[in-house]
């Protein structure tokens, strides 16, 4: 058994070459800046063990950098591969085939570019489109709410608390 390669995963936008701090930020960026609505991974799930890579959060300790998909567990070496993978997510409305890697971590496979190219992106029904529009609007509202909360936090003094200060 060969040793695994130590890799650092970047949350990278292949469209404008921006790096984000976390997957959720990349999903919000893609939605607001590039009108690409990708699904988020299920909360509370850790990245499955990869047979080829050992992942590290410290970039200095890593042998290679990989570009992580914020919607599933796949990762790529080139931005154009990640961008093509995003299109696969966008074409698969139910996104069920992308979550299989998280359900079966022992059967984790590398990205198969030929299979992705040959997959047909058929459009969903009107009901699916309505669900997608509802989800998009909901995500926009939550993103706006997050931005408002962050703005209000910046307005508060650094040592602010909800308790009244007593004069001694």
TrEMBL record:
<dbReference type="InterPro" id="IPR013087">
    <property type="entry name" value="Znf_C2H2_type"/>
</dbReference>
<keyword id="KW-0479">Metal-binding</keyword>
<feature type="region of interest" description="Disordered">
    <location>
        <begin position="91"/>
        <end position="132"/>
    </location>
</feature>
<feature type="domain" description="C2H2-type">
    <location>
        <begin position="67"/>
        <end position="94"/>
    </location>
</feature>
<keyword id="KW-0863">Zinc-finger</keyword>
<feature type="compositionally biased region" description="Acidic residues">
    <location>
        <begin position="106"/>
        <end position="115"/>
    </location>
</feature>
<protein>
    <submittedName>
        <fullName>NRPS-like protein biosynthetic cluster</fullName>
    </submittedName>
</protein>
<feature type="compositionally biased region" description="Polar residues">
    <location>
        <begin position="91"/>
        <end position="102"/>
    </location>
</feature>
<dbReference type="GO" id="GO:0008270">
    <property type="term" value="F:zinc ion binding"/>
</dbReference>
<keyword id="KW-0862">Zinc</keyword>
